[in-house]
Amino acid sequence: MTEQLLADLRSDTLTRPSSEMRQAMAYAEVGDDVYAEDPTVNALEARVAELFGHEAGLFCPSGSMTNMLGVAALVPRGSELLAESRAHVLRAEVGGHAALAGVTSRTWISPDGTLSADAALALAEPGSGYNQVATGAIAVENTHNFSGGRIADLAELRRLRTLTAERGIRVHMDGARVANAVVASGCSFADQGACADTVSLCLSKGLGAPVGSVLTGDAELIGHARHLRKRYGGGMRQAGILAAAGLYALEHNVDRLAEDHAHAALIAARIAAAVPGTCDPGIVETNIAFISTEGLSVDAVEFARLAAERGVRITPLGAQACRLVTHLDVDTAAAEAAAGVLAELAERTAGA
Ligand SMILES: *Cc1c(COP(=O)(O)O)cnc(C)c1O
After folding, report:
1. 164 lines ligand 1 (CB under 6 A)
2. Each residue's pLDDT tens digit, 138-157
3. Would the CB of 323 count as within 6 Å of ligand 1?
4. Ligand 1 center to residue 131 CA distance, Å?
5. Ligand 1: centre distance to CA 308 (Å)
6. Is CATH 3.40.640.10 correct for 31-252?
7. What's domain 7-14+256-350's architecture?
8. Is 28's C-beta closer than 6 angstroms to any atom of ligand 1?
9. Average pLDDT along the chain
10. pLDDT, tens digit, for every residue of 322-343?
11. Residue 351: which of 301, 278, 254 has the closest Cα?
12. Which of 105, 160, 183, 226 has the greatest number of CB atoms lying within 10 Å of its CB?
């Protein structure tokens, strides 16, 4: 028997636009964005660029596309991108960087998802000699999705920026959830932008817009990316309807990310209190938490199935881990209810 849905914690992409956001979309001023004549798209691109302290922005349908265009603008065909082993750019973009842009990759491993500039730089190669792959760019993910929404330490980001600049290596920030990092750590978007040549920001995650991501960088890089966007089939026409949702999200939904963080912390604390070791509240820094099923009598798929039966949807990621993500459509009552269900389920399956 399936109970009523209490909370859908599979992803923060599941948010639906509010009626206020829909109003903003309905009345957006529009034009043909392939001619760069959509005033709302232009306003969004300028707004996000300004936030990060970059010269220009480019609105795209998805974060996969802004990541691919950012990396393609920075890394020549046949050169490489370095990233952490579980980075979204390498694990969850269907090989697009290799398949479309001819970019190869190598990875460093950060078991806990924190950023180490030294680990990244240890792999970097200038590409001397006729048979070596040159490192074009390093990708950093902030926050780091598959390690539980970990924040990249700003001092490490700055160190990476300085050391890569000395070696002629560019930096791309997959900032799908960088707004979460900004709100949780109290730094500014400009602090983040100063640490990268290109930044990709998702509007359709915790910010609650239905569609879209923005890539920022200097005018030349973004000009190149704009050209590639058309080649990849990402040129949109009256896209101001979508950009209006993004502008609305930046205006209204950034500061409230703190609520999502509090909800994730609350859920993690309840699960950890029920069965120590299944969840570590100490590493829940933003809106993502992982539940380990290693000490339980069920695996991740079964744990997620049992949770869904009780009205809480989470995502099994790997054999022994489930991910939960809090967001705009999960209020405190829903977070409390989900915490109760997951804690009780952990207890039941621990005892079995
Ligand atoms: C969601 C996400 C993206 C972009 O995903 P799309 O579904 O293509 O918008 C990129 N990086 C990270 C870390 C993400 O979580």
Report:
1. no
2. 999 999 999 999 999 999 99
3. no
4. 33
5. 24
6. yes
7. Alpha-Beta Complex (3.90)
8. no
9. 96
10. 999 999 999 999 999 999 999 9
11. 278
12. 160
